[in-house]
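Most newcomers find our protein records easier to grasp once they have seen one. Read left to right, the backbone structure tokens trace the chain's path through space. Nothing more is needed to start thinking about how sequence determines fold. An example says more than a description, so a record of this kind follows:
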Amino acid sequence: MYYNNNNNEWILKQLLRLPPKQTQIAIDRHAIIEAWKDNLSEEQIIQTVQQGTLVINKCAKPNKIAFKHYFGKENITCIVISLFKQQWIQVKTTWAHTGR
């Protein structure tokens, strides 16, 4: 998918400023409760932020970016809404659904 157009250029700037694989990730209490309801582990949430694909229609300026990642063995897709802070990434909410 091509993300570098005028409407989504701010997403690319955020990802270049704080690369998810190299940045500290903090999980909000609400996200932990939602993950517990959906049987998601903390490792799955972090893996979604680090390796997931962008969900463009759920992103919002100035710093809200959404990721999704499919876990084949468990047959679930995890979706994570995160906020890019100054030095770290904060996961605000998560949810999962069965299949892709």
Remarks:
- The longest helix spans residues 42-51.
